[in-house]
Amino acid sequence: MAETSTTTSFINGSSSIASLATDHLFTILLLLPMDSILYFAMTCKKFRYLATSDILWESVCRRDWGNTAVDALKSSFHDDEQRRLIPWITLYKQVSRVDSVCCYKLAEPDPDLILPVPRASHSLNFVSGCLVLFGGGYEGGRDLDDTWAVYIGNNSQNMLKWQKIQTGTPSGRFGHTCVVIENYLVLFGGINERGDRHSDTWLGQVSLHENLGISLSWQLLDVGSTSPPPRGAHAACCISSRKMVIHGGIGLNGVRLDDTWIIELSENRCYGTWRKIVSHPSPPARSGHSLTCISETQTILFGGRGLGYEVLNDIWVLHVTEGYSKWVQIFYELQNIPAGVSLPRVGHSATSIIGGRLLIHGGEDSLRHRKDDFWVLDISHISLEKMHPTRLNSKRMLANKWRRLKPEGYKPGCRSFHRACVDDSGRYLYVFGGMVDGLLQPAEPVGLRFDGELFLVELVLQL
Predict the structure, then answer these.
(1) Same domain, 325 and 420
(2) Other C-beta atoms lying within 10 Å of the C-beta of residue 358
(3) Torsion sign across C-alpha atoms 356, 361, 363, 369
(4) Distance between CA atoms of 125 and 170, rounded to whole angstroms?
(5) Domain enclosing residue 220, as ranges
(6) Where is the domain boundary, 33, 60, 95?
(7) What's the DSSP call for residue 446?
(8) Distance between CA atoms of residues 149 and 168, nearest Å
(9) How far apart are CA 332 and CA 338, in angstroms?
(10) SS3 for 315?
(11) What is the pTM assigned to this prediction?
(12) Rounded to whole angstroms, how far apart are CA atoms 111 and 255?
C-alpha cells in the first residue's frame, strides 16, 4: 500500500523530485546517459519540457564532447539563427548515429607554390588552428627533416597554402610519433635512413604572426637519465593536459617491442619524466598499430603487425588514473561484424572524433592489400574502472560497436602509413600522404608509390 501511495504521489507531481528547483534537476540530468534523459522526458509534460530543452542538451554536448568541440561546431554554422534552427538534442542524436562520410579533394589553386613532397610514416597534427606536417620516409628509403604548416582556422574547406617553416631540427626520421598536448607538440623516436632508432623527446610550439605567417620552435626536452629504448613504428597519444603514452614499435636489431611508457611534462614544460607501465595482461609486441585517447582516462590500442609478421585486429584499452594503470583486452568475433573480414590491419590511422568515438581509415592487411574504408569503433560507454576484465570477454559484446561508414564525394585511393588528424570540432578529418598503389612504369605491374595528397573527410550529419 505504501508503494502504491508513493507511485501515485509521484504521478500527481507531489513527489520530492517534482518539487526540486530547475537547476537542481539540471544537475541530476547531467549525470545521466542520453537514453535515461529521454526516458525521464516521457514521464510528464513538465519533465518533457525540461529534459528536451536546448539549454540542457547544449550542456550534455559539452559534457560528452568537450567545450572545444562544441564551440568549434557552433562557429561552423553561418550565423546564430541557423544554429537555433537545429536543436542541440538533434545534433547529439545525429552525432551518435553518424553512418557516412564525405571526402573532398583540397586542391592547391597556385601550381607555382612549393608543396610538401610525397611521403609516408610522417606526422600530421592540428594545433593552434594549423596543420603541422613533419618528416617521414621518401623514395629510396630516405628520411625527411622538413616541417610544413598551413593555417586552417574555422574554415575546414579553405584553399590551403603550405608554408615551409623548418628544416634540420629535429633530425630527419620516419616512423616517429608526434602528439598534441594543449598547444604544444611532443615528438618521440623514429628511424633515420641509416636504420638508426631514436629515443629523443622534442617539444614544439606553433606561433601565428600577422605579417610573417607561421613559425615553429622545437627544443630537445630534458628527460633525465630514464627514457624508453630507441624505436620507430610505435604508437602514441596524449592522455591528459601533461601526459603522453607510447607503446611498442620496432627497436634495435629490428625487434618488435611490447612495452608501455608514460611521460609527464613539468608545469613549465621545461622537462619531462618517463616511467614504464607494468600491467598483466598487456598487449603483445607489435608495430604499425594505433593508440588513441578517447577520454581523460581511457586509451584504445588497435591492430598492427605482430612478432610473427601477422596482421592483428585485437583491441586493448589502457585505463590510467593517478597512481594506477591497467591494460584490458576487449574480445569480439569478426563474423559478428558486417564486412568484418576487412578489419585486421597495419599502417592505418585511428583518430578520436566528436562523441568520443574512433574513426579508423585505410591501412593494409597481411597480403599488403591497402584499403580505403572508414570504420567507427564506439566503446565510449564501457566503464572499465567499474568492470573486471573477465566481464569484458564476451566475444559478441563489440559487434554493435563497430560500424562501417558509407563514403561519399571524392574517392581517394587505398593507402597505408598515411597520417590523419581532426580539427577542434572533431567533425573534420585531414588525411595526408601514405603508401598507395601505383604503376612503376606503364608496362610494369602494379607497385607502390609515395603519395603527397591532402584531402578532407567530413562526418555527414543529417541536419
Answers:
(1) yes
(2) 22
(3) positive
(4) 16
(5) 98-377+394-457
(6) 95
(7) E
(8) 15
(9) 13
(10) strand
(11) 0.89
(12) 43
